Amino acid sequence: MKKVNAGRDIVLELQKVSIGYNKAIYNNIDASAQKGQMIAVIGANGTGKSTLLKSLSGAIPYISGEISLLSKSIKEYKASQLAQKVSFVPAQSPRAQRFSLFDMLATGCYNRSNWLGSISYEDEILIRETLNKVALSSFENRDISTLSDGEFQRAAIARSLVQNSQIILLDEPTAFLDIENKITVTKLLQKITLEQNKTIIFSTHDLQQAIKICDKIWILGHSNFITGSPTSLIEKGAFDKIFKDSSLKFNSTLLTFV
Amino acid sequence: MPIDQVFAAITGGQTPSWVHNIIFSYRIPKAITALLAGASLSICGLQMQTLFKNPLADPFILGISSGAGLGVAIFIMGFSAFGISLSTSLLSNIGIVTAAWLGAFGVTLLILLVSQRLKDNISFLIFGIMIGSVTGAIISLIQYFSSSTDLKVFVMWTMGSFSGLSLSQIWIMFLIVTIGFALSIYNIKDLNTLLLGEAYARSLGVNLEATRRRILIATTLLAGSITAFCGPIGFIGIAVPHIARMIFKNANHKILLPATAIIGAALMIFADTVSQLPGQTQILPINTVSALIGVPVIMYIILKRKTV
């Protein structure tokens, strides 16, 4: 699927960013993301894909460099302001029992609801529309602990849509899904970037999926950070280069993706 | 007491003065105390269970009540060790309450600090039990070196009781508990976001540090003051939120929190009535009755859940 109007407005920019908990685990990330772009973050286990996403979401501070969101450092945003621009879908959330899908999506309105968490009539409509969009409209009153993994992943995406942020970050959204659900979720993400012009950044182990559906790939390589469109990366021989140049450890891990 | 006279006293009819006295200066204050204690401890347990994502969390099992106990022990026995007498009951009352609060607050703070490092439920639970054991050991040590009069005051406190509270004390308790309740109601919105984990809550824009602090303060105000006035009352805090979840089948705190408060209050009145031993002259310590009611519920939860 080719995008006609992959926007040119840069929403997120990383300059010489080092990420990690207390100690840097990955250095020198230079990257950017634009409106309507779908970006895959690729890298071997433990290179810092999740850490990068968490740094972008503001959940953990980054070590050095600068991450700017809409040309302002994300350090300058308050938690509630940041949540209006960026939402994060964790890899696996604990799921409470006897909590309804509707109530879960209502928490997505956290910044707009009143002090008791009650939502407006407009938001109620928005939640129903969003559930319809992710094909879960008949599940409104379902206990979220009884949803399948694929259904829950769609519910989590629906929550970030209700949150209505420009950027949606997802940590391995398809890792625990079977092929059918994988395709459903991938198509849903594509639809969101196309129809709502949102920016989606997700980590994945599936290089083929990334090449096929993404506008851009961020590779947390063994020696350095590489970014570009899938075609430019193939033309430049970036993937080949990684395989040839990098150490055996990275080689063997990345090879398994192809 | 004959039922018709009780009824007459409440509705303002003609009754002997002793019936009037028993009801208005003993039974009704006691019932109000039990009501406040049951509701407070239960919503503390609920908030702790959601915050720590641990179905067995409550002020008692995580050592907050024993922290309050330690504060009281140090206060009662420490003061007399320095030769200061606690003859004025006002000083001693305010002192016990303050000491219990400080103890409760200290332990809650310690638990909050550690909970960020402990990932799984089991190690967390073990940590709480260890805090309880350590404070228990320190209390024993203090007891060993204290006089028998002080010892009796402390042991009576640990048994838990809803009686013996003056009307002014109930007012103080009511006031503090009301603040704790208000704060807990304010926590409802954040508690709901915590049902899906901290990463999720943070992504919604919840200021987790502030939320933790607010839950900590609410818990300390409620559990600390109830423990201070009535002694450490166990198991109600764990059991009641689970009963409320079973009855209302809804984890949304907007429903669960008031439900927990009401069921906790009702259960505590029931426990208090049982402890009176109708028809007998003795009164059982409330702690034994709450354990007899609470423990079977907790055992049932453990047996029913495959993973704790």
| Separate helix tally of chain B | 12
Taken together, the total number of domains of chain A comes to 1
SS elements, strand count of chain B? 0
Spatial separation of the terminal alpha carbons of chain A: 21 Å
Based on the coordinates given, report the CATH architecture of chain A: 3-Layer(aba) Sandwich
Biggest sheet character of chain A: 6 strands, mixed
- CATH topology title of chain A: Rossmann fold
Shape of chain B: globular
Description:
The complex is a heterodimer of chains A (258) and B (308). By secondary structure, chain A is an alpha/beta fold. Chain A is built from ten helices and ten strands. Chain A has helices at residues 49-57, 79-85, 101-107, 121-133, 149-163, 179-196, 207-213, 230-235, 238-245, 248-255, and strands at residues 10-19, 26-34, 38-43, 64-69, 72-73, 86-89, 167-170, 199-203, 216-220, 225-228. In chain A, the strands form two sheets. Chain A has a six-stranded mixed beta sheet with strand order 6-7-8-3-9-10, with helices on both faces. A four-stranded antiparallel beta sheet of chain A has the order 2-1-4-5, with helices on one face. In chain A, a hairpin with a 6-residue loop joins β1 (10-19) and β2. The radius of gyration of chain A is 18 Å and the shape is globular. Chain B has a single domain (37-303), classed as ABC transporter involved in vitamin B12 uptake, BtuC (Orthogonal Bundle), CATH 1.10.3470.10. Chain B is 77% helix and 0% strand. Chain B contains twelve helices and no strands. Chain B has helices at residues 3-11, 17-51, 64-81, 89-115, 121-144, 148-159, 167-194, 198-203, 208-230, 236-248, 253-275, 286-304. In chain B, α3 packs antiparallel against α6. Chain B is globular. The termini of chain B are far apart. Chains A and B meet through α2, β6 and α3 of A and α7 and α8 of B.
Produce a short descriptive summary.
The complex is a heterodimer of chains A (258) and B (308). Chain A has 258 residues and is an alpha/beta fold.
